[in-house]
Amino acid sequence: MSRMGIQAATTMRELQNKLDLIGHNVANANTTGYKTQMANFSSLLYQNIDNFSDEEANSVGRVTPLGIRQGAGAKVGHANNNFTQGALINTERPLDLALTEDRQFFEVAVTENGETETRFTRDGSFYLQPTQTGDSALVTSNGHAILNQFGEAIVINQGFDDVALDASGQVVVRRDGITNSEATISVVEAIRPQFLEQTGQNLFRLPDVTETDFEAGDIIGQVADVNVAVGRLEGSNVELSTQMTELIQTQRAYQFNARTISMHDQMRGLINQMR
């Protein structure tokens, strides 16, 4: 295959990745707290031909010569997350919370392969799950433990009459007619949200900070004054009209590149017939 065909085939593969990303966004249009992913493309430059011989065109200080650049198509350089606020939906459920600020998250504990890791979510639909000791743990819809401001799982001792959450993230428990706050839900803010990685199940995680120039505290930090909406959930920020527009544009780009390969094959066939 010629260089033209290689460029088209490489770009088609990456356009398919964008189509998959759009499909993922559309599938999660009704997922609580879901954040839209956007694909950013970058060119695959692998050869720079210097076709200038004069010194002015290639003056001292230039990093690359001012010449012809030949590449092999494009690739998805990075998938960014759009952390803008989604619409709030009234549920009137006392264990539903909605974060009202961008880039804020609830902390949850996720156990995989015997290891427990702290992850972050915007999904505030919480539930009470019985434990082996007869107490009740506050968990997400997927059963992951909600953490307090000290990084510990929130467990409510047995014998309570009612449990509710307030606008400051307090877990309010009523026992024998007396109401007390027994825990505080941890809310953190992403200082550098571009570093957060999606892990599935509507969760994010911190990257391996040993590979960066930052520490964990430079990427995410604790929120002191928590302000949440009780009895409400944040809807996804997916705009279906935008996703459909992106889908049409990506499909057309895919068709153009497929047509390039087809025309290239036709041209090679005509040349072979002329021999």
UniProtKB/TrEMBL annotation:
UniProt entry keywords in alphabetical sequence: Bacterial flagellum, Cell projection, Cilium, Flagellum
Pfam families: Flg_bb_rod, Flg_bbr_C, LlgE_F_G_D1
Keyword Lipoprotein: no
Transmembrane segments annotated in the record for this chain: none
Compartment(s): Bacterial flagellum basal body
GO biological process assignments: bacterial-type flagellum-dependent swarming motility
UniProt name for this protein: Flagellar basal-body rod protein FlgG
UniProt source species: Halolactibacillus halophilus
Lineage: Bacteria, Bacillati, Bacillota, Bacilli, Bacillales
